[in-house]
């Protein structure tokens, strides 16, 4: 039998293509992922925005980074669900009987998460532009924004992999995403942290969403990012490493 390592990237491309076909056959997934963040964006901009003081001229400019993170948080629930479905239907056993690298099955889902969530984020940005969002960022700043969002997506996706592999029911596979979706509410995504009570402020300033939001916000405003970018990347990389290790351990036991 030929070495599976020799065809590792080819195996990934096959698994990625399989997973992407599921997305294209049910584009309502992307629509569903985008609906709640869009509704929250409309609510905060047109209902609460006039009463919130953020120090910015246009509240949508302040709000958008947090909405993008919420969109990604919504999207990863489908990764967990699709992994659970593959496991429950015995798809993993079929793939394991083939001469392919075992981890490529997971990587197919992970790469699909990057693409599908990227599409959802673009939808959110287009809606924000219609609502008055404007950015002075150049091409490099936009590339940096999508780079940060991509790493954040990877971090959450590997957490979703753990949930999908460990869940006992379809509802359990996706339920883990709810705290992640609402984590931006206790951060600087909607209001500056200095307006919060001390205990809430301490949590908001020492959880991963705040530095990620601040880094993206500064990039979109073409302002110096300071230490936020490094704090954001450190959070994401640490989460990726830990989640990947646990996910692979669970996967090897299947």
UniProtKB/TrEMBL annotation:
Q: Which domain of life is it from?
A: Bacteria
Question: Could you tell me which InterPro entries the record lists for this protein?
Answer: ABC2_TM, ABC2_TM_bact-type, ABC_2_transport, Nod_factor_ABC_transporter
Record domain ABC transmembrane type-2: where: 28-254
Please list the GO terms describing molecular function. Answer: ABC-type transporter activity
Q: Where in the cell is it found?
A: Cell membrane; Membrane
Kindly list the GO CC terms recorded for this protein. ATP-binding cassette (ABC) transporter complex
Q: How does it sit in the membrane?
A: Multi-pass membrane protein
Location (main, coarse): membrane
Q: Keywords in UniProt for this one?
A: Cell membrane, Membrane, Transmembrane, Transmembrane helix, Transport
Q: Does the keyword Cell membrane apply?
A: yes
The residues that cross the membrane are 30-50, 62-84, 105-130, 142-166, 173-191, 229-251
Family membership: Belongs to the ABC-2 integral membrane protein family.
Q: What is this protein called?
A: Transport permease protein
Supply the source organism for this entry.
Clostridium oryzae
């Amino acid at each position: 039998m030929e070495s599976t390592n020799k065809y590792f990237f080819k195996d990934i491309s096959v698994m990625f293509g399989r997973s992407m076909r599921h997305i294209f056959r049910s584009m309502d997934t992307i629509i569903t992922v985008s609906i709640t963040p869009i509704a929250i964006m409309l609510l905060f901009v047109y209902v609460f925005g006039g009463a919130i003081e953020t120090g910015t001229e246009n509240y949508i400019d302040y709000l958008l980074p947090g909405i993008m993170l919420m969109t990604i948080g919504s999207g990863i629930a489908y990764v967990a669900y699709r992994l659970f479905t593959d496991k429950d239907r015995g798809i993993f056993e079929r793939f394991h009987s083939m001469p392919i690298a075992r981890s490529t099955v997971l990587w197919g889902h992970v790469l699909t998460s990057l693409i599908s969530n990227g599409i959802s984020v673009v939808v959110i940005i287009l809606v924000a532009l219609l609502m008055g969002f404007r950015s002075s960022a150049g091409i490099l700043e936009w590339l940096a924004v999508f780079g940060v969002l991509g790493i954040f997506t990877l971090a959450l996706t590997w957490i979703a992999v753990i949930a999908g592999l460990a869940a006992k029911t379809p509802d359990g596979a996706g339920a883990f995403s709810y705290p992640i979706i609402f984590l931006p509410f206790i951060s600087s995504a909607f209001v500056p942290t200095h307006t919060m009570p001390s205990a809430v402020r301490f949590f908001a300033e020492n959880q991963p969403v705040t530095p990620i939001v601040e880094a993206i916000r500064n990039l979109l405003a073409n302002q110096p990012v300071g230490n936020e970018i490094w704090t954001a990347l450190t959070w994401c990389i640490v989460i990726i490493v830990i989640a990947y290790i646990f996910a692979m351990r669970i996967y090897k036991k299947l």
